[in-house]
Amino acid sequence: MQLSKGGGPSWQNHTFWYLVQISQVLVLPQKVREMAGDAVNITVIDRKTYLLFVPNIPMEVFENRNPLYSMHMPLIPAMKEDHMDFIQGDVQGIDVETQTVEFLPVERLGAAVNRIHYDYLIIAVGARLAYDKIEGFHEYGHTVSDTYYGNRLRHYLYHEYKGGPVAIGSARFHQGTKTRDLVPTAEAACEGPPVEVMLTMGNWLQSRNLGGPDKVTVFTPAEWIAEDAGQGIVHALLAKAGTMGFHYRNNTHDITRITKDGIEFANGPSLDAELKIIFPDWVPHAFMKDLPISDDVGFVITDMTMRNPKYPNVFACGDAAAVTVPKLGILAHMGAEVAARQIAKDVGLMNKELADQPMKPIVDCIGDMGNNKAFYISSNTWYGGNREVFRMGHVPYLLKVQYKEMFFRTKGKVPDWGIPVADFLTEMLTKG
Ligand SMILES: Cc1cc2nc3c(=O)[nH]c(=O)nc-3n(C[C@H](O)[C@H](O)[C@H](O)COP(=O)(O)OP(=O)(O)OC[C@H]3O[C@@H](n4cnc5c(N)ncnc54)[C@H](O)[C@@H]3O)c2cc1C
Predict the structure, then answer these.
(1) Which atom of ligand 1 has the smallest separation from the CA of 55?
(2) Of the residues 328, 379, 402, 423, which should be mutated to test ligand 1's pocket, given the most ligand atoms within 8 Å of the CB?
(3) In angstroms, rounded to a whole number, what is the distance separating the alpha carbons of residues 403 and 121?
(4) CATH for 274
(5) 289 lines ligand 1 (CB under 6 A)
(6) pLDDT tens across 118-169, in order?
(7) Phi, psi at residue 156, to the nearest 5°?
(8) How far is the CA of 377 from the centre of ligand 1 (A)?
(9) Most buried residue among 36, 219, 227, 243 by CB atoms closer than 10 A?
(10) Structural domain includes residue 1
(11) Does ligand 1 lie within 6 Å of residue 370's CB atom?
(12) pLDDT-derived band of residue 27, with 50, 70 and 90 as boundaries?
């Protein structure tokens, strides 16, 4: 891969900058281009040529649409628009001393391993969703985290489901210990989706005269489900779900095994279920383990400007970063913005005061509930803040659908006012 000379000004004796960014977070290279302009050459390496819009997969599944047809957005036209190079490659190693990334071109089988040099590296490869570590998942488990599994569940619901009990919940998340001073420790990686699927499942059962919420048990390895949403919201949510008839099991510690008849846990009795919808441990990629930039489990250590303290030309954003807890898209977006400001500062295009504002994490999510309704959570109390907003209704649903449409239409460039306006409308129109 030939890197071309950057067209922008030269700074600090560098005549040009190379930046290799590994990510599906399209927003990240776009933000870097927006803030650092032509002072950087950007190369994106991803094993896929499309972006998978994960948050709306459950909605497609329960509304009996194959998510394969609606949740893929082509990456290459968006990259071309912002003059970025794109390599369809599988990253297999990073050497932070020689500043090289090792990758295998994957467009055709049989390619030889290649290396690319970087001046700056932003690691945004997400995490492995470790279903393969759960005994019995392959035979008896279901999930909604990609289009294959989503469509498999859709088929099960509409063609095989016999009306038995349903269990929905997470395996234990194993967070590293090196960033404990920056973010709290979570026992589940991302519990918005199990809450969303629980509510949608209850509505789906009712709408098909197959029962209702009382057939559904949601479980968590932690003391509280979705604890990162803050105690006030979790209590309100559990009270509401209890009134609707859902069952709840906490402190399961981990999933030990999935069988034909149910789920066995590390703590407490097993749960009988015909349908088992599972969210696994989010595990760092094998090539990230034992790198000098990684924590004790393999997530990339950064400060809250998403910069690695030992190797300041290395950044991480999204699920791959140790400080991204829970593993949420909104935090990936916030991290992208913060990292892009740092790069802009380094190339002399942004002043220190503006660039050095750290990420202030917030759990912001809209989850489908079925019947054209959704819940909206916006909270930072888990991180020590005082914002706690929880709403349910038709407006968040409309915004969830519209956000995805806007994301695809603008090739990822949802205007900066998009999320705040969505938040504002949700809060105003669902008050009371
Ligand atoms: C069912 C579900 C619903 C969710 N709903 C929400 C929601 O409503 N709101 C929210 O904020 N978050 C939600 N999340 C979480 C959100 O999807 C993730 O936090 C977000 O996708 C993380 O983005 P990322 O770019 O860090 O990682 P990913 O989205 O996983 O992207 C990683 C990219 O890196 C590429 N890659 C991986 N390994 C390699 C490699 N070795 N070489 C080259 N490329 C590689 C992949 O192809 C991919 O394109 C949900 C998650 C699930 C499972």
Answers:
(1) 5
(2) 328
(3) 29
(4) 3.50.50.60
(5) no
(6) 999 999 999 999 999 999 999 999 999 999 999 999 999 999 999 999 999 9
(7) -60, -45
(8) 20
(9) 36
(10) no
(11) no
(12) confident
